[in-house]
Amino acid sequence: GATLHIAGLAKEYKANTPVLKDISLDISNEGLTAVIGPSGTGKSTLLRCINRLIEPTAGAIILQDDGTRIDLAKVRGAALRQARRRIGMVFQEYNLVERLTVMENLLTGRLGYVSAFNAWRRRFEAADIEYAFDLLDTVGLSGFANQRADALSGGQRQRVGIARALMQRPQLLLADEPTSSLDPKTSVEIMELLIEQGDAFHIPVIVNIHDVELAKRYASRIIGMSGGTIVYDGPPAELSNDM
Ligand code: ADP
Ligand code: ADP
């Protein structure tokens, strides 16, 4: 599987106000890595740097897999767009296109939110459609292809969010507070689905989560953040109770 090697990562949105400070981190493990820590501590900024929704101020983010090696912190233009396709992202608010069907959301993918209209002009390969149906089975939504996103429950929407991320055939799966809009029972189902899919595709899964109990229960590795730095990195069992 892919490995992620982060070194000296820093981010400031405003000059002299660091939000991430010299983060170094290696992720080569399969299984779920949970990033925990108080609100405002930089968890979301970290994931957004990895997915390059924002540009880091300094540091390297090396994504390596078989023959390929890329520094996500430094790529630009077409290479950046290509690199981002290697990273699947799942969001707290699902980020589906509400008026499109489940199948349309999967097929238009990230294009959907940029311009669903333009996406219609794209032709889809039969293989893409077949793969989308397979993924719907995988996430427990067979039979939902023609439902509109706005007719689904939160848990079902998040399942679509996960299937959409998997459509990219990603080398890494990121999830930013994927359960924060869901009830406890559904949260557990979504955590289990993320672990299951990470294992099935042999890809690392990194999840930001403010619920420490949920993190301890499902993660094989916990990264604790505070004030833009990593203050804990290890198994859940050794995490002190005050985190
Ligand atoms: P967390 O995910 O741990 O809650 P965030 O990464 O969202 O933390 O935020 C860390 C800090 O960065 C906060 O002080 C937040 O206000 C600030 N921040 C986040 N996004 C932006 C932005 N786009 N512009 C300016 N400041 C931001
Ligand atoms: P491309 O140029 O390949 O279409 P995009 O800029 O559309 O790439 O998306 C690249 C990355 O941004 C993907 O990893 C995707 O998961 C993520 N992304 C950002 N915002 C969204 C969103 N609202 N919905 C879905 N994916 C998003």
> How far do the termini sit from each other?
30 Å
> Would you list the SSEs in sequence order as H and E?
EEEHEEHEHHHEHEHEE
Shape: globular
The largest sheet, given as strand count, sense and whether it forms a barrel, is:
6 strands, mixed
Please report the number of helical segments.
7
* Main structural class: alpha/beta
Strand-residue fraction? 25-35%
User: Which blocks of ≥5 consecutive residues have pLDDT under 50?
Assistant: none
Strands of the biggest beta sheet: in what spatial order? 6-7-8-3-9-10
Proportion in helices: 25-40%
State Rg: 18 Å
Hetero groups bound?
A: adenosine-5'-diphosphate
Number of strands: 10
Mean pLDDT: 92
GO cellular component, one term: membrane
GO molecular function: ABC-type phosphonate transporter activity; ATP binding; ATP hydrolysis activity
Domain ABC transporter: 4-243
InterPro entries: AAA+_ATPase, ABC_transporter-like_ATP-bd, ABC_transporter-like_CS, ABC_transpr_PhnC, MetN_ABC_transporter-like, P-loop_NTPase
Describe, in plain words, how this protein is organized in 3D.
- GO terms for molecular function: ABC-type phosphonate transporter activity; ATP binding; ATP hydrolysis activity.
- This is Phosphonate ABC transporter ATP-binding protein.
- The structure is a single chain.
- This protein is an alpha/beta fold and 243 residues long.
- Helix content is 35%, strand content 27%.
- The protein is built from seven helices and ten strands.
- It has helices at residues 43-50, 77-84, 102-119, 126-138, 154-167, 184-201, 212-218, and strands at 3-14, 17-27, 32-36, 58-65, 68-71, 87-90, 172-176, 205-208, 221-226, 229-234.
- The protein has a six-stranded mixed β-sheet, with helices on both faces. A four-stranded antiparallel β-sheet has the order 2-1-4-5, covered by helices on one side.
- A hairpin with a 2-residue loop joins strand 9 and strand 10.
- It is globular, with a radius of gyration of 18 Å.
- The protein starts with a strand and ends in a 9-residue tail after the last strand.
- The model has no long low-confidence stretch (mean pLDDT 92).
- One adenosine-5'-diphosphate is lined by residues 13, 19, 37, 39-45.
- The site of one adenosine-5'-diphosphate has 13 residues, from helix 2, strand 6 and helix 3.
